[in-house]
Amino acid sequence: IAVNAPVAAALTVVTNKTVYAKNEILTATATLTSGGAAVGGVSVSFKAVPRSGGNQISGSATTNSSGVAVFTYRFNSKRDKSGVFDLTASAKVNGATVSGGTVFELR
């Protein structure tokens, strides 16, 4: 008897920089795959949470045919506090939630 195991989906997240100044633009890129193949047309939610408390940054983007979703955000010196942020991206694939994350710093 052959049993087909579910194919695991994966979501990887990178930012264009690791350290930002308060006037710069964060570009977060998430790549969604399932069984090694790109998954397009899926909504990806992005959330950056400051470790020291304060305003969270959030948004969403849809993956293209290459499985890539891009979220951009311009930092605001009055709204956004300096510190380290945990950035998480999540998406639903075949009813299961997959997520990935990275870290960046705002100075």
* Total number of beta strands: 9
Structural class: mainly beta
The share of residues in helices is: under 10%
Radius of gyration: 16 Å
- Provide mean pLDDT, rounded: 94
Low-pLDDT runs: none
Please give the alpha-carbon distance between the first and last residues: 58 Å
Give the spatial strand order of the biggest sheet. 2-9-8-5-6
Order of SSEs, N→C?
EEEEEEEEE
Strand content: over 45%
Q: Biggest β-sheet: count, sense, barrel? A: 5 strands, mixed
Number of helices: 0
Give the overall shape, derived from the CA principal axes.
elongated
Give a structural overview:
Helix content is 0%, strand content 60%. It is mostly beta strands and 107 residues long. It is elongated and about 45 Å long.
Topology:
Elements lengths: L8 E7 L3 E2 L4 E10 L2 E2 L4 E8 L6 E6 L5 E7 L8 E11 L2 E11 L1
Parallel strand pairs: 2-9
Antiparallel strand pairs: 1-3, 3-4, 3-7, 5-6, 5-8, 8-9
Question: In a few lines, what is going on in this structure?
Answer:
This protein is mostly beta strands and 107 residues long. The protein contains no helices and 9 strands.
Keywords:
107 residues, five-stranded mixed beta sheet, 0% helix
